[in-house]
Description:
Layout: E1 4-6, H1 7-17, E2 22-25, H2 32-37, E3 45-48, H3 52-66, E4 70-75, H4 76-93, E5 97-103, H5 119-123, E6 130-132, H6 139-151, E7 157-163, H7 164-168, E8 170-172, H8 189-201, E9 205-209, H9 212-215, H10 219-229, E10 233-235, E11 251-254, H11 259-266, E12 271-275, E13 296-301, E14 315-318, H12 321-351, H13 356-368, H14 389-399, E15 405-410, H15 411-414, H16 420-426, E16 431-437, H17 442-452, H18 469-475, E17 479-483, H19 489-498, E18 503-508
Parallel strand pairs: 2-3, 2-4, 4-5, 5-7, 6-7, 9-10, 9-12, 10-11, 12-13, 13-14, 15-16, 16-18, 17-18
Antiparallel strand pairs: 1-8
Helix pairs in contact: 1-6, 3-4, 3-14, 8-12, 10-12, 14-16
Amino acid sequence: MKNRITGRSAFLALLKDEGITHLFGNPGTTELPIMHALKDHPDLTYVMAMQESLVVAIADGFSRASGRLVACNVHVAPGLGNAMGSLYNAKFTGTPMILTAGQQEQGHGLMEPVLYGPLVQMAEPLVKWAVEVTRLEDLPRIVRRAAKIATTPPTGPVFISLPGDILNSEAGIDLGRSTRVDTRVRPSDEVLQALTQRILRAQRPVIIAGDEIVKSDALAEAASLAETLGAPAYQCSTPYSAQFLSENPCFMGALSRLQKQVREVLSPYDLMIVLGADPLRMSVYSEVDPMPDGLSMLQIGLVDWDLAKNYGAEIALKADVKETLRALVPALKAAGGAALEARAKQGVAELASKNWTAKRKAAIEQISKAKEKSPIDPDWLALQGIGWGLPASVGVSLANPHRPVVCFSGDGSAMYSIQALWTAAHHKLPLNVVIVNNGGYRIIKQRLLAFHGDDHYVGMDFVDPAVDFAGLARSFGLEAIKISDGRELKPKLSDAFARPGAKLIEVMVDGTVN
C-alpha cells in the first residue's frame, strides 16, 4: 500500500531526493502550503530573498559555484514576472534549475482572481520545459522529469506551476526515483582520427574556450591541448565563467565584443578550435564581420544549437569536451611526434611576451601610476555586469560557506539588487561586497560619447541626491566601510577580507568621462 502524503510534503521530499539542499524563495499566499510543510523538513534550508529576481539570481550563483541542481519558488504571476530577468540569465548560461510558482486553485483561475496569470505560457520562452500540475498523482513524475531535463546537456531551467489545491490535497502516491542521463561521450575512432589529422595540418591554430569546459571539468585538458599545440587560447567573446586557466602560458584573455577588433585578433590564424562555446557572440551591430575570411573552424560541445550556428564548421562534434580532449591530446602527441613537440615549445615561448600574464603585469604597472590620484581614477578599477553579480555572490557564498567570497560591483548595477545584502547578513556569510561608486552609468556615457559624439547625459547620473551605499549596508545589518583615498584601498580591503562576516566596502571614484 502506498503511503499517504500531502502534495506540499511530497514536493519537498522529491526535491531533497533530487539533491536539493537549499530552497530559494520569496513567499506569498499561494506558497503558504510549502512554507507550512517546511517544518517537517528541517534538513532543507530555506533562503529568503526580498524580491523574486534576487531569488533566481542567488540560486543561479549557488548552482554555478557548486555545479548542482537548484530549486527556487516565487509568487504567482507578478512574482514570476519579477524573476524573468534573472531567469533569462539562467537560460543564457544553462543553469540547471527547477523554478516553481504557487498558482491559484484549479477552477478558481477561471474567475480571474487578483494576481492570477497563465504561468506556463509566461515561463515557456525562457525554460527548457514548463508544466502545471493538474493531479497530485502526477507530481512525482513531473518533478522527476523536471530534474532530469534541467540536468541533461544542454542544461537549463525548467518551470512547474503548483496550484494550491494540489499542494493541500493528500493521496497515496509513489515518489519514484531520481535519474541522471550520462552524456560524457567521446567521438568515434574515425572522427577522432580525422580531427587529429586536421589539427596537425594547421600551421597557426587558435583555441576559443567556452563555458562547457567548466561544466565538463575540462580546464586541465583544455590547457593541455593548448600546450600540446603551442597555440594561443582565448575565452569566447561572452565568457560567464573562468573558462581557461588564467596562469597558463597559452592563455591570452577573452575576445572582446567589438567585431573589428576580434577580426584583427583572429586574422593571423588558419584554424579555430572551439571548445564548448558560441565563439563569436557580439553585442551591438557592426558592418564588420568578426570572422576573418578563410579561417576554418572545428567545434566540440554538447550544446548542439551552438555548433556551426553562425559559421560553418569543417568538423562539428556533439561530444563531451573533457572526454574528447582526453582522447584527442594523446592522439595528437602520438601522430605529431617530435616535430609537434618542437613546434609547440617554440609557440609557447613566442606567447610569453603577450599572454595574459604579461598583459596583466603591464596593466598593473600602468594603473599603479594612478593609485594616488584624488578622486580615485575609475580606470584603476574594472567593472562589468548589471544587477546579477550582487545576488549571485550571495549564492556563491552559500555554496562555499567556509571560503571568503568577494563581490565586485558598480554602483548602478548594485542598485538593481541591493536588497540581496539582507540575505547575506541574515545568513552571516563570509562575503565582502566592494561597490565602486562613480555616481552614475559611466559605461553608457562612454558609449553615448563614442557612438554618437554626444556628451549631453540624460538619465545617467544619480548624484542629486547621492546614494549612500555604506548607509544602505548598515540598514541591512552589514558592516560598512567607505574609501575615498586610493592609498587606503589596499590596507582597508586586506583588513576587511581577513575578518569574518558580511561587509560592504564603498569606493568613491571620479565620475567624469573623457
